[in-house]
Structures are given as C-alpha cells and as structure tokens.
C-alpha cells in the first residue's frame, strides 16, 4: 500500500504562486516506477488531470496551465511537486496527487487551493 499526502495549498491572490508537494510512503512498490499525476476538482465540476510526470521525467500538462505550472519529482525523497505560477481564479480547486503503475493506483486526500483577491 502506498500513502500519498499532499501539502502546500492555501489562499493566494491572482497572479501569485504556490508550490504543492506530495509525499509518498508505505511498503508498496518502488516509488520510481509510478507515473505521478496532479488532478484538480473545482466546485461543481469533474475532476481533471492537470499534469503528469513519468518515471523517466517526461511531463505533460493540460493547455490551461501550460507555461504556468511545472511538475517535478524527486525519486530519492519519494516526492512530487507542482509549482504553480501566475495563478488565476479559475485555478481554484482541490488538488489531488495520484500515482499509477499498471493496475496499481493510489490517491491522496487532496489540498485546497483558492485563488482570490
């Protein structure tokens, strides 16, 4: 079992920055084999995939965050990060960390990001 714990959410003004962190722990499979993803779910909307990073470090993003968000990982520390810059009110959501490797999938509990003046 792999436990994922997100942190770093909070209230930020439009144009500001936040860095989300996701810490993995447990006796499950080796962290480095997992594709790590950040999802978000805004009030009244479906959960959407925001960014992903493979075990080899390849990254992908939804169009609305390209150039503003950066996903990264530290396999030695079993951490994944989401650096969010130039935040907009529409980025307001609960952000979830996700780990997937074949049939294995794990979710964190989420961290709330609110972008408001």
- How can the largest sheet be summarized? 7 strands, mixed
What sort of overall outline do the alpha carbons produce when their principal axes are compared?
A: globular
User: What class do helices, strands and sheet pairing give?
Assistant: mainly beta
Number of helices: 0
Q: Share of helix among residues? A: under 10%
Q: Which whole number gives the mean pLDDT?
A: 94
Ranges where pLDDT stays below 50 over 5 or more residues in a row are none
- Order of secondary-structure elements: EEEEEEEEEEE
Q: What is the number of beta strands? A: 11
Work out the strand percent: over 45%
Radius of gyration: 14 Å
- The N- and C-terminal alpha carbons lie at a distance of 40 Å
Oligomeric state of shown chains: single chain
Quick overview:
With 117 residues, this protein is mostly beta strands. Helices cover 0% and strands 55% of the residues.
Please characterize this protein's 3D structure:
The chain has 117 residues and is mainly beta. The protein is built from no helices and eleven strands. It has strands at residues 2-7, 10-12, 18-26, 35-41, 48-53, 59-61, 69-74, 79-84, 93-101, 104-107, 111-115. The strands form two sheets. Strands 2, 4, 5, 6, 9, 10 and 11 form a seven-stranded mixed sheet that branches. The radius of gyration is 14 Å and the shape is globular. It starts with a strand and ends with a strand.
């Amino acid at each position: 079992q792999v436990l994922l714990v997100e942190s770093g959410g909070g209230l930020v003004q439009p144009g500001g920055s936040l860095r989300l962190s996701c810490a993995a722990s447990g006796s499950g499979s080796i962290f480095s084999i997992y594709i790590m993803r950040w999802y978000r779910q805004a009030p009244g909307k479906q959960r959407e995939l925001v960014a992903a990073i493979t075990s080899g470090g390849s990254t992908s993003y939804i169009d609305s965050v390209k150039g503003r968000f950066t996903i990264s990982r530290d396999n030695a520390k079993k951490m994944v990060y989401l650096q969010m810059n130039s935040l907009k009110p529409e980025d307001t959501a609960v952000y979830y960390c996700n780990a997937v490797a074949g049939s294995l999938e794990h979710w964190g509990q989420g961290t709330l990001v609110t972008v408001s003046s």
